Amino acid sequence: MLKFSKKLLLLIVVATTFLGVSALAVYAEDIIYYTKSGDTLFKLSTRFNVPVNTIKQANNLRSDILNLNQRLYVPGAPGFWNYTVRPGDTFYLIGQRFGVSVGDMQVANNYWSAIYPGQIIVIPPAARTPAPVPPPASAPGGQVYTVRSGDTLYLISQRFGVTIGNLRSANNLWTDNLMIGQQLVIPAAPQKPKPPTGSISIRDDEVDLLARLVTAESAGEPYEGQVAVAASILNRMRSPNYPHSVREIIYQVVDGRYYQFSPVLDGRINQPATATAFRAVQDALAGWDPSGGAIGFYNPQKTTNRWVASQPVTTVIGNHVFFRE
Fold first, then answer.
1. pLDDT value at residue 14
2. Alpha-carbon span 147 to 88, nearest angstrom
3. Residue 152 sits in a domain of what CATH number?
4. Would the pTM count as exceeding 0.85?
5. How far does Cα 194 stand from its chain's mean position?
């Protein structure tokens, strides 16, 4: 054990000093391995070409029984590497970096299909010396997204306006399984035409109604957010999928029970509008749209509607998430 620690420490210092990067990849005959479902000492012995007794002695094991996710030292595994997964990594990208196939890496790691930042994986012997680890990169025009509880590929694809196929391709995913904390590359979504912008005219009574909705929905929000709420209603007027007047949009009830705006349901729509809300409505009518072409908004701390949470996001202002169709 002491022999392993000294060797690993020396390699970490050398990698950090001369490569100028974090010691994320370490070449060593001794590797760290976390057991997965189906692992046995015999399988590990065969995979890493190390005798069973050597693994048992290095880890002070008194039986052949292994626990799931048990940390093991595997001494004398020539050509293998330990690598700590970085944000944006996929098996494909790591394989390209170290000159090994995805299949060989999955065999070395007992066929793991998903990886996440901070995870230690085993890199099997490669045909070339690895290059310094570059910073995580997104697909052209894309971004990196961290998987949250409840996420699925379908919901993520809907949220960012990309196809499931493009998500799979960008991240080299072979299954639908996702892990909380896993980071995915979100490729750039195809540009959808935005609703027409510019000034619009509505009746004075509808100006008052819209200002009352802005007051009820976004009083206390940044002024830009209040303008965005008003603009999202005007964007619905321009869309063929919604009614074409402010009054019909605000009072719309789908299937006789789904109110589009909660202030209509609880009566807050009947409270007087603030002067700030009137000004926000006028700015929206003049063509200012901080919502980015949104047709709706929600507070993620309050809504339980999975449909709105799955829609492509245009922007976030204050406590409101604005979304498009």
1. 38
2. 12
3. 3.10.350.10
4. no
5. 24
Residues 180, 252 share a domain:
no
**What is the per-residue pLDDT for 6?**
41
Residues of the chain with pLDDT under 50: 1-28, 127-137, 139-140, 192-195
Amino acid 126: pLDDT: 66
Amino acid at 109: N
Domain that holds residue 169: 143-186
The identity of residue 325, as a single letter, is: E
DSSP 264-292: HHHSGGGSPPPHHHHHHHHHHHTT--TTS
Structure tokens at 80: 């293998």
How far, in Å, CA of 286 to CA of 274, rounded?
Answer: 19
Residue 222's nearest CA partner among 291, 157, 273, 162 is 291
223 and 309 housed in the same domain: yes
Q: Using CA atoms, how far apart are residues 261 and 259, in angstroms rounded to an integer?
A: 6
Answer whether residue 191 is part of any domain.
Answer: no
Q: How many domains is the chain partitioned into structurally?
A: 3
